[in-house]
Amino acid sequence: LQLVSSHSASNKMSPAxxxxxxxxxxxxxxKETQMEAMMSMRTTTDLVEFLIQNCHKVFxxxxxxxxx
Length: 68
Hints:
flat
């Protein structure tokens, strides 16, 4: 998604727009009413947008421990 957002000038899919599209599918409670889903939509889209913008930090492979 970060790669797609890097071309937002031509495809209009900014991290915020991608988050709006993908957040409901990526982050969803197992049992949630439609009203609860609408109430939490802003929080979930903000989280997905953050993950897209910071994917290289959030999903970076762990650094090896220094050897003695």
